[in-house]
Amino acid sequence: MQLSAAVEEDYRRLFRTAEVRPDHRRAVGDEVESLVAHKKRYRKAGRPVGVPWWVVAVIHDLEASRRFDRHLHNGDPLTARTVHVPKNRPSGPPPFTWEQSASDALGFDGLAGQEDWSLGHALFRLEAFNGFGYRPKHINSPYLWSFCQHYDKGKFASDGHFDAGLVSAQCGAAVLLKVMAEERHITLH
After folding, report:
1. Is residue 137 helix, strand or coil?
2. Is residue 188 assigned to a domain?
3. For residue 189, is it within any domain?
4. Cα-to-chain-centroid distance, residue 159
């Protein structure tokens, strides 16, 4: 999928109108606080490959539950190469530091070396990191929009099959970024 002007504008519209669901406000606030507390570490992982700290942070939240003993790729333990998709990452002998794994994940998924991290581009890349499988189903990706009014249900289960009744239990990346911006931890253009 390519980022078109229409898709970029749709991201901007959804972001502008997104509101954290009242029953998730406290949890989202706690997640944002935890991510911001580790800003220095996220910056250290992202800076060498040109990825903003806040992108590394939300991926870390979604893929590894903010655990620094897990691969940024998919949450597998750092004591070995990844066993889930993507498999056998990073190259080299384990165990890996979190920063080694994070740099590999950012490069492997095409985030390294990107110059434009404006809002539309960032949301497109985050959705790409997880996959565009929700678009043909006419569902806003929970990877971005879970915990706000732009997502209700429908999720790919851990076995890769889509379940129309399954609801994501994770806060979406766009929702985390929205709260970070509202709290002035980041500025998005």
Report:
1. helix
2. no
3. no
4. 20
Task: State both tokens at 83.
Answer: 């066993």
| CA 113 to each of CA 60, 107, 117, 141, 154: distance values in angstroms, whole numbers, following the listed order | 19, 8, 11, 25, 33
Write out the residue range of the structural domain in which residue 87 sits: 5-182
pLDDT of the residue at 178: 98
The pair of structure tokens assigned to 49 is 């490959």
pLDDT confidence band for 92 (50 / 70 / 90): very high
Which DSSP symbol is given to 95? Answer: P
What single-letter amino acid sits at 61?
D
Mean pLDDT calculated for residue range 173-179: 98
Q: Which of 11, 52, 12, 60 lies closest to 32, judged by CA? A: 60
- CB burial readout 57-83, b (16+ within 10 A) else e: bbbbbbbbeeeeebbbbbebebeebbe
Residue 14 tokens, joined: 């959804």
**Other beta carbons within 10 Å of 91:** 7
Exposure string of 161-185, with b = 16+ CB inside 10 Å and e = fewer, is: eeeeeeebebbbbbbbbbbbeeeeb
Number of domains the chain is built from? 1
- Please give the Cα distance from 138 to 136 (Å, whole number): 5
User: Is 90 exceeded by the pLDDT of residue 159?
Assistant: no
pLDDT in tens, 59-83: 999 999 999 999 999 999 999 999 9
CA distance 189 to 185: 14
Q: Is 187 part of any domain?
A: no
